[in-house]
Amino acid sequence: MPEFQNTQIMEHNLKPGLHLSDKYTVTEGDLASTIKTGDVHYASTPSLIILMEKVICKMLIERLGDEYTTVSAEINVKHMLPLSKGENVNCSVHLKFVEESKLFFDFVIFNSEEDIVAIGAHERVIVKKGDY
Q1: Which among 31, 48, 52, 124 is placed 20 to 30 Å from 58, CA to CA?
Q2: Distance between CA atoms of 73 and 90, rounded to whole angstroms?
Q3: How far, in Å, are 56, 109, 111 from residue 42 at the CA level?
Q4: pTM here?
């Protein structure tokens, strides 16, 4: 896998401490049995990762402008509790550290009882659209 690097360092207003929380309802399309990553009728770990990435992208889109985007570089996730179709969750993301074009996030997904369903860390890299 190629390492993402920008030849230009862009100016941005992304500072540690930015955060966003978003609510989501588990759908049939999120279940491991639907996406064929298992036989259980619970939300798959890949579906939770996608949710986390969507919340991060929602937080970043207005801050990067039209010329730049981000790509996923590394994910570490611990999925601890099952979620059934129809359950509501809250995904909270936090920009922990910024190193030039690299962005480091922590995230947590809670169920409606505020139990931790999944936690993890995620790295994204800012790239110029069209370069990759």
Answers
A1: 31
A2: 23
A3: 23, 15, 13
A4: 0.87
